[in-house]
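#structure-requests
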Amino acid sequence: MKNSRQVLSLVSGIIGPLLALVVIVLIFAVADRLYGSGNFLTGTNIRQMSNSAALIAVPALGMTMIIIAGGIDLSAGTALTLCGTVLVTMLKNQEASNADPGFAWAVTCAVVVTLLTGCLCGIVNGGLITTTQVVPFIVSLGTMSIFLGIGQIIAQESTVTAKTQNIPQWLAKLCFTGSNGDEYLLISKVPSSAILALLLALVVGAILRYTIFGRNLFAIGSNRSTARLCGVPIAFSTISVYMIAGLFFAVGGMLYYAEVKNGNPKDGSGKELQMIAAVVLGGGSLSGGRGSAIGTLIGALIIVVIRSGCTQLSIPNTYTHIIIGVIIIIAVIVDQLRNGSPEWLFRMLPSSNNAQQT
């Protein structure tokens, strides 16, 4: 019975974002057919949108767990590009090329160090939040600048690139979309990045639903004091969730490098806002205690569909930003209404007044 209620709650939380995505797709499809180039729903554009959504969704999955636990991480963007910079720097400095026997070992070392860098960023954030009791917003605001500075030191304040022979084929093709429509991808012409995002979403969904750690995150985000009284290890869970999120930021850094083929720490500024927006649009609550991996995927798709639709209709980026911002505000307002806020509005409703009188 309890599992049935959990499933029902999860489905009801996804239906809203999913309906919003369907409506947005239909609006842009009709508008593109009438006023645009007619390329919005072509195979090539759908592949490009799925790849772009994966670039947002993968790191946003880590942000989802943090937000469910009642936290926030403003350093996610610079941590992501720091990891990407570490990866490309190690690939650039390796002596082995893709034809040498030691190439696989060199690439493995580069990937492991990249993932460890992301985990270390998360441990720093989680450790500082736990030991200092400072709100995550302030801590991550400071580490955002720290990670940016470290990345610039590693990159020597420039853009880092690696030679083609130093890049493994699987990494070079990770964000390949087959724009000419003739080259096959991993599964039925689906970008590898999109497959990776879906698999990671399933992993995060399983963690949140079937593990004690996942239930602890919901408990902490819903009511930290009650969770502590129930014996939930607050400090351990906080450090762990930021470390796991850092791992997802590192994978996002690898996708970032596979997309742009270089590493520039400055590119991370603003990426954290995209991650947070994907979580919110997917039904996550900035107050904590609510969110889902599938919802975050849908939120990332909403952002990308709006961008692509506006591009097909030749709408300037300035207006695209405004549209996305308005939709985010609406999503936050809906979340507040679920939580009974603002109070003045509910005091004006007749049903609320009758309930108070009763």
